[in-house]
Design a protein that fits this description.
Rossmann fold, homodimer, DNA-binding, 7-stranded mixed beta sheet, elongated, 15 helices, 6-stranded parallel beta sheet
DNA sequence: CTGTTAGCGCGTTCAA
DNA sequence: TTGAACGCGCTAACAG
């Protein structure tokens, strides 16, 4: 840097000012400086910068462990976050969420390596959030906890997503709709999406004026098979199923197929909080409500950076609904239209998960 | 740090030495120092450390863009790499591979932020590798280029993987086996796995003494459908198919189903360089040759760190074969056994991709 | 085994 | 507008 300064016939500090726009520099000298940097192949040293300015321009992502979902959208979250960070001049480091011990998080945060963190897979009452709040460390969430007062987050609009899906199915003539959620343990742990969809499903069926039944299900094909069988047995009037459990889908399809039912003429299936990638893995291609990964992760990063750079801006938040994409797994239920004899009535209830 | 030193009645440097084990420190004073650190809640500052030692203990991962595969294994690569890095006391930052302009890579490398990089999705002649070599920047590869002289890498053992798969099918009695690779353009770009599996397939069928036919196919269900149809039409004796194209699988299955063939009794399917997650998405569950993600990414990281920390160690490399897991999509071909009239013979050839 | 001290490369306050 | 000097928090010679 000193070499650059000499070569441009200015003081070392002037180079710094030119670099950071932290003080007016005459256009002429600025040109000279940049030319000198070019010629010498000078690159500002990130660490030295960080030390002096106390801002590393590095943010961390507490990434999810790839168990629940298929891993498809999770990857996109990570890559999109890295892209967005870079577009804003930040680097993105990955911190495994296995850092379950919050003390480890504290340790990392206080190392001064990162300016802030983005927390994924937030639970309603999340130790990590409590800790970050306590030590007053900047963060944003993809997802959200229960008490979001003063917090920045980007989350899925589960209410809208569920309403749109249920209304769509009701509009096709379905009178009884099931919701196959993720696992009971996720619910008990207060994992946001599971808790919220559970509530919003109940709300949506009430609004749509149809019968509804919901069940938890661990994320695996065989559990999907078992739970679907139970649902179909105990609830003969069922003609449509909504699920947020991607890994259970093959089992669901199998249970339907074994009854010699055809999708979508005999039974409709919608996967919510899913993706086109998932949809096209099945035959027929599934109707899905696609999670807007790119937007969510972009928002998560931007919300954090905003907080980092603004003086006293109120942390913002955004809700992004999933987008319903109708494909081949939904339609009117021809089976029921034919069997116009008995009108099935089922009480909204609960079936134990597999 | 000075406070810690005072509180422990030692010099500032002694604290440093105790922290880095860079010089013997008597057990007694070491205890005093750590106690003082504890009491003061002292955390060494990462950036200052990096500045002084010229080693940031940060490594970068040039991650893949999630187009080719399903995204399942890719996520595991990233998370496992982050875990392994952390276990070795390193941080892992993500650098988007869209950094196609090698100049941008040079810029990042020379910022001094990271000590080394791990390159994924390496092509046989990869600009990034050439650049890193040229500027003498430490790196390792997951995958490998053509000239690996003096380079550290962890890659799939395609030869073993393909031999095992073909031998397994031949052992079941299959006489004509197809290989559905990824896209022609990936091959033309010299993407390692595509080029290597293509060659190893030819080698393996020769060794096994069976007929073989191979074809490229873009990564999507409908192209999988089209290519499979072409293969089945032009090659009536075909009873088994190997693919490395996960996204094409639904199309492959559909083409088979439309012929009223049942898997595995009428036709066998193996997906190589895949995973259990993929396998269980289909009915019947697929026989796959699973990529050993955890091991590969661990090796990739460790190889780099070894290089970073060792004095003059020769860069090492490792090949890891995929592991064949037999599930429901493979077996003897009953269809051919029944139609014992005509013995189909087909010349090994090439079918244009969809 | 321990203490002293000079930087690492840059941001930023002060004086000019 | 510009230049000089100080310090960020730590490592690593060098000296005891």
């Amino acid at each position: 840097m000193l070499d650059v300064a000499k070569r441009a016939n200015v003081a070392l500090s002037t180079v710094s000012y030119a670099l950071n726009n932290t003080r007016p520099v005459s256009e002429e000298t600025r040109q000279r400086i940049f030319k000198a940097m070019e010629e010498l192949g000078y690159r500002p040293h990130a660490m030295a910068r960080g030390l002096a300015s106390k801002r590393s321009r590095i943010i961390a992502l507490l990434f999810p462990n790839p168990e629940r979902g298929l891993g498809i959208t999770e990857l996109e979250f990570v890559t999109n976050a890295a892209d967005t960070a870079r577009e804003n001049g930040y680097n993105l480091v990955l911190w495994p969420s296995e850092m379950h011990d919050p003390e480890e998080l504290r340790l990392f945060a206080q190392q001064g390596l990162v300016d802030g963190v983005i927390v994924m897979e937030v639970r309603l009452n999340d130790e990590r959030i409590n800790l970050l709040r306590e030590i007053d460390f900047p963060f944003s969430m993809i997802g959200r906890c229960a008490d979001t007062d003063g917090l920045g987050y980007a989350d899925i609009d589960f209410k809208h997503t569920m309403l749109e899906t249920v209304n769509y199915l009701a509009g096709l003539g379905h009178k009884t709709i099931a919701f196959l959620n993720q696992s009971q343990s996720a619910f008990d742990n207060g994992y946001g999406p599971v808790v919220r969809t559970e509530a919003e499903f109940k709300h949506a069926i009430r609004v749509a004026g149809v019968e509804g039944i919901s069940s938890f299900c661990r994320p695996a094909p065989h559990t999907g098979y078992e739970v679907t069988n139970k649902l179909l047995t105990e609830c003969p009037g069922l003609t449509a199923l909504i699920t947020m459990n991607e890994r259970a889908v093959p089992g669901i399809m199998q249970a339907i197929a074994e009854r010699d039912w055809h999708v979508p003429d005999d039974f409709s299936l919608v996967v919510i909080v899913s993706s086109a990638r998932m949809a096209e893995m099945m035959t027929p291609a599934l109707t899905t409500s696609d999670i807007q990964v790119a937007e969510l992760s972009r928002l998560g990063v931007e919300l954090l950076i905003q907080q980092l750079e603004a003086e006293e801006h109120e942390p913002l938040h955004e809700l992004v609904a999933c987008k319903l994409v109708v494909r081949g797994s939904t339609g009117p239920c021809l089976r029921v239209l034919k069997e116009s004899s008995s009108t099935p009535v089922v009480a909204g209830g609960k079936i134990p998960e597999a």
